[in-house]
Amino acid sequence: MKLYVYEVCTRIHGYIAILGLAVLLHPILSISSQKQLRKGTRWSVWLSMILVLTAYGMGLWLYPEYRTQIKPGLITENIALAYMFERKEHLAFLTSMLVLGGGFLCLYFRDSASRTLARLLMLWGWICGLLVAGMGIMVAAA
Amino acid sequence: MSKIPKIPASVLCAVMMGILSYTIQRLIDAQNEPPMGTVLLQTTIPYYWRIAMACLHATASGLLCHALLPQLTMSIQTLKWIVSALLILCVLALIVVP
Predict the structure, then answer these.
(1) How far is B23 from chain A (nearest CA, A)?
(2) Domain boundaries, chain A
(3) What is the model's pLDDT at position B37?
(4) DSSP state at residue A94
């Protein structure tokens, strides 16, 4: 992959992830007040799951390019940022697991216990996602 | 005490097991691998292996939970605290040991 294609893909990956996090906030804030999910909330859960998982999938696809093209230079120039990138990857896995689990529970189960667990998982996914986004912005800015 | 249906309990178990598995694998790897910068490129990508193993553990534990657990009866508040505490520990471990 050429370097500029990689750069474009990383930017798209970041924008999709940020968009996913923004959409995820809607079900987190609104599901506790709904006995049956409203159509808009259902759409936002689906959309946030799709966006977060697409961003994660793009990250997995780009990771080998990062290892061969970017990481060696990053290690010699600023090893702290290389470590930050690794942290970001770990937390991205946690985010995708939590959003996937929370979204599934939210979409398919109506009882209050499942809704509470769904909200908890999505909230933690959002918090991890926010950390990932912050680290990603710092690495991308370097 | 509230009753948590079988499938949501299994999904929760799968998610938590996947996260715990990833964190433990990372902590074990961190003890054995050379410091970053001494090895520039490995032939395999450990990150992919960890994800694959964590997904495998998550699926297996979710299926086992679904097969063996009749229904989870537990205070939802206690469960929320347990899940949150485990997640905080995992996030901190992954931040401290990159």
Answers:
(1) 8
(2) 3-141
(3) 67
(4) H
